[in-house]
Amino acid sequence: AAKAGGKNMARVFLPQMEDSLIMRARLERMLRDAFAHSRDLFVFYQPIVDLTSGRVVSREALMRWHDSSRGWIPPKDFIPVAEEAGLVYELDSFVLHAACRDAAAWTDEASVAVNISASSVGQGRLPGAVAMALAASGLPATRLSVEVTETALMSGGNEALRDLQALRDMGVGISLDDFGTGFSSLAHLRAFPFDRIKIDGSFVQDGDRRSDCAAIVRALAQLGVTLRVATVAEGVETPQQRQRIQADGCTHAQGYLFGRPEPTLRDVPRLREINALHVC
Ligand code: C2E
Ligand code: MG
Ligand code: MG
Ligand code: MG
To answer: How confident is the model at residue 19 (pLDDT cuts 50, 70, 90)?
Structure first.
């Protein structure tokens, strides 16, 4: 029986372990390949709305990867792989270039927000990459903002602050992403003058059922008012959530209620060709 159990375990457990190792290695190879050809990498855009005017004032650039055999691979699966494989600079540069080029063509003058991996803040290369993307596209620096998480500030130390200050000096906006998750500290808000705080969508959604989550959103929104920093509620999906976050004092919102991440018209033919118009 013990032997059978062992056999069973081997059958159930080992192949999974092997799978995940092989999967990582394969993902890394596929990702390098995708960067080399950049045919299967896309940048989608999701609107950020000013709650007072109801207008789209900004769009967040969200990276998308479609592999012919595996279909859509979500950022949460490939960004850690890029980080471990040392491909973060390539990833940042790719998104920055695409985002600045696309935003330069928007007729509504909305700004574009680009996520920057924590591991690339504080390396000293970020300001240069941003400057190159701005120069290549002609986009004014004031129409670009970067989104960083608290992890970037914690692991990047003074170097991280120096990189962000260099961007700030260029006129680029800086958003604190996913605020409230991870190791949130008000010291982060004092250490650096962010111009936007993004309140993680989990608080907005859990606020439907949990008064403590609703209270956290309210407190963060009030903090934004006091610090004169815009507060973006993420993950707003229902009119009720919109009403609540607006009453709480959030100045901006983002979520499926206002619009899903969508491809640019330029990418539509390619997406049709690979039969991948319907996405995450
Ligand atoms: P994030 O920066 O907090 O982006 C917001 C995420 O919430 C996006 O997921 C977006 O599709 C999703 N979202 C937006 N509205 C709603 C909603 O109403 N309901 C729900 N349930 N979700 C909503 P996505 O695109 O899968 O990205 C996940 C994370 O991956 C991002 O979180 C960001 O941290 C990272 N990421 C995405 N694109 C890039 C990129 O180009 N570079 C880097 N470094 N990170 C990226
Ligand atoms: Mg973001
Ligand atoms: Mg976020
Ligand atoms: Mg998030």
So the answer is: low
Summarize pLDDT for 213-238 with one digit per residue, the tens: 899 999 999 999 999 999 999 999 99
Q: What is the pTM of this model?
A: 0.92
CA 150 to CA 176: how far, in whole Å? 7
- Tell me, using a 6 A CB cutoff, whether residue 149 lines ligand 1: no
Q: How many other C-beta atoms lie within 10 A of the C-beta of residue 33?
A: 13
Beta strands in 34-125 (DSSP E): 41-50, 56-67, 71-73, 111-115
Cα of 200 from ligand 2 centre, angstroms: 9
75 close to ligand 1 (CB < 6 Angstrom): yes
Q: Smallest Cα–Cα separation from 173: which of 191, 152, 147? A: 147
Structure tokens, 62: 């969200």
Q: 39 in the Ramachandran plot: left (φ > 0), alpha (ψ -120 to 50) or beta?
A: alpha
| pLDDT 10s digits, 100-120 | 999 999 999 999 999 999 999
ipTM, two decimals: 0.98
What is the CA(235)–ligand 3 centre distance, in A? 8
What is the three-state SS of 169-185?
Answer: HHCCEEEEEEECECCCC
Tokens standing for residue 264: 């640019």
Please state, in angstroms and rounded to a whole number, the distance separating the CA atoms of residues 85 and 31: 9
